[in-house]
Amino acid sequence: MLHHTTRTTKKYHQARRHFVFRKKKNTKELVLPDHFLTSYNWEHTWKNCSLHLNDTLRILVMTRRNHIRERVLATESQGKSHSGVGTRHNILQEYSIQKSRLDA
User: Fold this and answer.
1) How many domains does the chain have?
2) What is the Cα–Cα distance from 74 to 72, expressed in whole angstroms?
3) CA-CA distance, 53 to 85, in Å (whole number)?
4) Which of 85, 67, 68 is nearest to 76 (CA)?
5) Percentage of the residues of the chain whose pLDDT score is greater than 70
6) Strand order in 20-24's β-sheet?
7) pTM for the structure as a whole
């Protein structure tokens, strides 16, 4: 348990400095602290994600207590691979829904 906490803390600080990407097949994993979703850098980083058709972006949201709180999944399915506006909106919408469920 202590080892897991140490790894999570390291990943959280990595996410605070930069976005951490891991690619498995057609899944891109994005680790970020939870306050990043409303920050200015989100739009810029989203455009650099370059999701392709049928790619899945998995977002691991870190809380300030360094726990992974939730995973938000979005799938590119309508060919908006480089604008990313629709999927970004879906991610933020789904995130706010899950966040309100968790906070309730």
Assistant:
1) 1
2) 7
3) 14
4) 85
5) 0
6) 20-24, 27-33, 56-62, 68-75
7) 0.23
